Structures are given as structure tokens and as C-alpha cells.
Amino acid sequence: MAETTEEKLEATTKENLMSLLAHHKSVGTAPVSEHEWLAAHGTLHKYNAGDVVTAKGEQAKKLLVVFSGNIAIRIDRGAGSHKLFEWNGGDVGGVMPYSRVGSPPNDVVVEEAADVLVVPRDMLPEMIRECPVITAKLVHAMVDRARQFTASDLRDEKLISLGKLAAGLAHELNNPASAVMRSAKTLTEAVRSAEEAGRQLAAAHLSAAQFACIESTRTACGARQAPLSAMARADHEDEIADWLADHGADEDCALPLADTGVTLAALDTLAANISGTSLDASLRWISASCLVRALTSEIETASSRMYNLVAAVKGFSYMDHAPTPEPVNIHRGIADTLTVLGAKTRAKSVEVAMDIPEDLPHVHAVGAELNQIWMNLIDNAVDAVAVGGHVAVTAGAERDSVIVKITDDGPGIPKEIQGRIFDPFFTTKGVGKGTGLGLDVVRRLLQRHEGEIEVDSEPGRTEFQVRLPAAK
Fold first, then answer.
1. What is the pTM of this model?
2. Residue 95 has what pLDDT?
3. How far apart are CA 442 and CA 454, in angstroms?
4. Which domains does the chain have, with CATH numbers?
5. For a disulfide at 253, which of 84, 144, 183, 287, Cβ 3.0-4.6 Å?
6. Are 121 and 61 in contact (CB under 8 A)?
7. Rounded CA gap, 440 and 153, in Å?
8. Is 455 helix (H, G, I), strand (E, B) or coil?
9. Which segments within 358-471 are labelled E, that is strand?
10. DSSP 8-state symbol, 409
């Protein structure tokens, strides 16, 4: 009978294992006595591709000294699966000395057949005593691994925030951009009609008094009144259409004239001074002229909306600033954040109230990172409330600190999980709706800025309070 893989591995001589340890990138420079301890207390194991070393949700139970192959953690946070972390020959993984035993965010899977020395977790206290050099190296490796996990989490959360930003901006820009395109197309036809009517008026050889009457009527059209209800506007359009029909004028003028401030009395005055084809040409010129003015006003309003949106995104992302700490205006940052989230709040009919003094002291921070904090907290609050819910963002100064509070009237956070909400990968949202990184990233960014965050929650009210040192 052919030898099994385990039997072949058991036949591996101690000399070969010692040679592997001596040439290992992470523990190779340790004393021979420490290599002997590892060889005596560890088991050389052959993992095949596809084997799960540690399953998601399980605690790591062994130290892994990898001699060959590839072991990796892959995760999908909504943009496709990607490699979060990996171990190759020469690396160490699994549970480490002095580490808080935790569970991986996803299965730890062998992607390329690997030879690994496995040391059980319950042997680590003895290893700490007997192998001080290796212990020190493993602690350094643990710190490096934590740093890589942190960098990966921050990078992923930034990409997720960028996706939210892009989606919100696309939605926000769609309406004014459509308005500009629609008005520009209509404007071309309105200008053509105005030019044609102007040529007819020029050929009519009207008197100065008649031209003055035409201009007076056009001015009356430009004096826009308060918007009418749909029914009142339809009645006004019918009245103008009847008047145009009674005077033999083009009834197509009724629609643009109904959107102006023109009255039947003003039209009667015009008809008293001008008649026939000249009256028709005058009415077409007036309606086209007023339409041109209305369309240019709409284009200006829509363009201003787009400009303000782009300015808000530019301010939110600090795209023209180096990522270095500087005095940051909290009021402006949160206002830009609310603009970026405007499409989402309107889609859910959520009322967001902002009460932040404009003279609030600045804080010394990286503006883009601070805005990422506001984005995560406000976005979470909007997600938490029901349709038509309320979110309040307030801020004030207290001694040498600036305090920002984000409050919502959602269902609250259960007491039993409040202590876990800042843990990485912990989320109460449904599958595919949350990464579990938002609040973890908020906590890390605030630590970087010497800030603090607290949460107070009960059914019907949840408040996140952020405290940041004011800029000197």
C-alpha cells in the first residue's frame, strides 16, 4: 500500500526540519536551541489547495510557520472578491504570542499547496519562556500584520466612500444636466421663432407708439407672479387661448404666455393699438422673447446647481489640498457632506437638520479624513431611520474641544451589541449592505486626530458624539 501524505510527512527527519527552520525568513536567525524547541513541539503539516486553515467566525487555534505555498484571506465588500491578506513561504501566521485571539473576517484558505509547521495555541506560553528571540520576531510580525490589515481596511473604506460619493454626485447632477439639455433644445426653437416674428414686425412699419405698446406688453409678461397651481395655470392658459382665437392670432402662443405675468387686460391694450397680421407677429415675438428669457434663466439656475455640487464635492474630498493636517472648518465640511448625501436623504424623505455655528472654532485635522467621518456617521443615521425620519447634526465648543453630535430617531442600537459596533467587520445591516468597517474606520481616524467618539442609544433615539481638540 502506498504511503499516505501524513506518513511521508512523519518520516521527515528532524535534520530536515531544522534545516527548514534555519533558512526560514522570519525565524531563521534565532538560536538553534529555539529551532529545536519548535521542531519538538510543532507538527509539520501538508495543506492542499482549497483547504480551510481557519474558518470565518472561528478563533485561530495554532501558530503557522509557513515554509512553502500560499495561504490567503479573500473578502468581497461589494466590489468583487479581492485578497485581503496572504502568507507565503518564509512568513508566520495564525495566532501569535500576546495577541488577542480573534476570528478572521473570512475563511483562511490555502491557494497553493503549503508545507507548514503547526504549533498549538496552548504551547505558546511555554514558547514565550523558552524561545525569547522567536517570540520577539513573532511580536514584530504581529504588529506588521495589524498595520497591513489597518491599511487595507482604510483603503477599502475609502473606495466604498468614493463609490457612495460618485453615485450621489451622478444622481444629483442628472436633474440639472437634463434641465440644461432640455432648455437648450427648446431655446434654439424659441430664438428662431423670435427672429422670424421680428422680421415680420420690421416689415410692418409700425409707429414708435405701437412699438412702445409691444415693449410694454413684453415687460408685463416678464413680471412673473407667484407660481400658479396646476389647475389655475390650466384655466389661465385656456383663457389666453380663447383670447388669441377671438383675435385671429396664433394659439400656440398660449402655452408660453400662460407661464408669464401677462393679463388679459394687457393683451386688450395691445389689441387696441395693433391689429391684423401685425398683432399676430407682435404676440409671437412677445411669447418667444419671454420664452427665451425663461429658458436662459432655467439654464443659469441648473448650471449654478451643477457648479455648487462640484464645489461641494471638491470641498468634501479636499482634492486640491495635500493630505496634511491644517485648520479645518467643521461647518463647511458637514455642509458639503450633506450636499453629497442629498440624493439619498431626498429618496428616503429624511429630514436632516443642521445647527452648527459658523464661528465654531476650527480643528487641526486632515480635512478629507474628517469628512469621511461625517459621511459614515450621517450615512449610518439615514440608513437607521424609517422613511420620513429625522436626523439632526449639531455642534458646539466646550473648553478646548469641538463637539459634534449626530442624532437620529431610528429604532436604536440594542444594549447587548453596543459594545461591539466599533469592532472591525461587525455590522447590523443586511448581507451586501454593510461592510462592518465604517465605524471601525471612524474610530481609527479619530484616534489619529486625538479625538473621541461615544454613543448613547435607546429605542427612538441614537446619538453619536464626536469630540475633537480645537486648533490652537
1. 0.49
2. 84
3. 11
4. 5-153 (2.60.120.10), 168-310 (no CATH), 323-469 (3.30.565.10)
5. 287
6. yes
7. 9
8. strand
9. 363-365, 390-398, 401-408, 452-458, 461-469
10. -
